[in-house]
Design brief:
mainly alpha; 2 strands; two-stranded antiparallel ribbon; 21 helices; 477 residues; single chain
Length: 477
């Protein structure tokens, strides 16, 4: 009897989580922390229990499965329609499906490859189905600030005592030295995650500075960007520079503010410090640019897995036009786990990092994987989705006047541009924790826009028709 009561109360609690979104939003901060440090937890728990570590490694996929009912429950309530995003995703999915059938991709590989490619968009639909208030956004920002303090503290420890510290938390499998300095990773398992995390928190503070003219937020963002650069990741550094320039353009360089600032006592010290920081950053950018060019551009493709994946991604996209070679067959984690015969066909299995016995760099790119698996048309359509997101959220940013929302919209745009830059050399759209945060942030923005002003119509189809009509008229003329 007692068991039945307990079972009933458990089921009742689970149903309440779906029926009342407040319950889900209460546990969301704990989920965020777990997802951020998923790899670190898995490594350390794996020493005690490998099955438990395996569960933690797949926690993101399990979470997506658990949260799927949100889409079904709130689809009608939120009045979602089969919009541009849905139609484009269905076209891309169909291209991959046809390609997989043509190339006789085994069903298990097809399913896993398709899930890997589209799981980020499922996260987006989940978060788009949930309502978020300004108070919710404030809670999340406060949580990230607390996590940032912890990350920065351990970043200093990592910089001073890297061998001892990483040995203690079991992340000492690799020490990446660049420009004679160790790449910091703090309590993450890789410098790229450390650099990415500090950059996204920095972007939120930079957005707050831009919208609210909050000077403290501007200074904090500068500190985080400098700390992030010590990961010595070229893509992260370029994303920081690009988004900083974007905000300056948004501010129209704030000429009036600069004139006032010139008259203050802080002008000279700030200029001196800024000049020193600019020189250091410029030096880092130049050095990282040279390193990137040497490793991935001027080098022969037989000595660089990433360059080889790009070259043959284009070759496959055009030789197998318009469909590609199917899900799980090129450049993806699935193609690595079920070693793809495509690698053997194009002799990529003879390149270091793509060997069949040790394909450790087989997931070193994103867009070549898309071109290879769903073709050049699929890649262009997927890219158009991210451009669509930028335009859609930017309209929301210009239309909605509530400051908390404007900060989040501008932040979301910077996250998308950062992800596009990062995707040139990393699978950020399907590898954790990046893909979860990227698509969740986009989903939250779309949810807020829908709730505040309803569905936006960019009129993309009409614009295309007008362009085609003009082109046709010119031909006839």
């Amino acid at each position: 009897m007692l068991k039945n009561v307990r079972n009933y109360s458990t089921i009742s609690y689970v149903l309440r989580i779906y029926e009342d979104q407040i319950y889900f939003k209460r546990i969301l901060p704990y989920i965020i922390v777990l997802l951020l440090f998923q790899d670190l937890l898995a490594i350390n728990i794996g020493i005690i229990s490998k099955p438990l570590a395996n569960i933690i490694n797949h926690f993101d996929e399990l979470l997506i499965l658990i949260c799927l009912p949100f889409i079904l429950l709130y689809y009608k309530e939120r009045k979602w329609k089969f919009d541009f995003l849905f139609h484009i995703l269905m076209v891309v999915f169909s291209l991959g499906l046809i390609s997989s059938i043509i190339h006789k991709v085994p069903l298990i590989i097809l399913i896993q490859g398709a899930i890997l490619m589209f799981k980020g968009f499922i996260v987006l639909f989940i978060f788009r189905s949930i309502s978020f208030t300004a108070a919710d956004l404030n809670k999340f920002s406060q949580l990230f600030k607390k996590i940032t303090y912890i990350v920065l503290f351990f970043a200093v420890i990592d910089a001073l005592f890297s061998h001892q510290f990483r040995g203690l938390i079991n992340t000492d499998h690799k020490f990446d030295i660049r420009m004679g300095i160790i790449s910091i990773q703090s309590i993450f398992t890789h410098p790229s995650l450390y650099g990415w995390f500090l950059a996204i928190v920095g972007f939120y503070l930079l957005s707050s500075y831009s919208v609210n003219n909050n000077k403290k937020s501007g200074l904090k963002s500068l500190v985080l960007f400098i700390a992030s650069i010590f990961s010595f990741r070229f893509k992260t550094t370029i994303a920081i520079l690009f988004n900083s320039l974007f905000v300056l353009v948004q501010q129209r360089f704030n000429i009036a503010g600069l004139k006032k600032f010139r008259q203050s006592k802080a002008f000279l010290p700030v200029i001196i410090v800024s000049s020193i920081v600019a020189i250091v950053v410029l030096y880092a950018v130049v050095q990282l640019s040279v390193l990137t060019i040497q490793r991935y551009i001027t080098i022969d493709y037989t000595e660089s897995a990433r360059k080889a994946l790009y070259i043959f991604g284009f070759i496959i996209a055009f030789t197998q036009f318009p469909f590609g070679v199917g899900y799980g067959r090129y450049g993806s984690w699935t193609a690595r786990e079920y070693y793809s015969p495509v690698y053997v066909e194009y002799e990529l299995d003879k390149i270091y990092g793509l060997y069949s016995k040790d394909p450790k760099w087989a997931t070193d790119t994103y867009w070549p994987s898309i071109m290879g698996e769903v073709g050049i048309i699929g890649a262009i359509l997927l890219l158009s989705i991210f451009i669509y997101f930028i335009l859609y959220i930017y309209i929301g940013y210009k239309t909605i006047q509530k400051m908390e929302y404007k900060v989040f919209f501008l932040f979301s745009i910077m996250i998308i541009t950062q992800s596009l830059i990062e995707s040139l050399g990393e699978q950020v759209y399907n590898s954790g924790p990046q893909y979860l945060f990227i698509f969740a942030i986009i989903g939250i923005s779309l949810s807020i826009i829908q709730e505040q002003i309803g569905e936006l119509h960019l009129g993309i189809a009409n614009k295309f028709r007008k362009i085609l009509t003009k082109m046709q008229a010119k031909k006839e003329f």
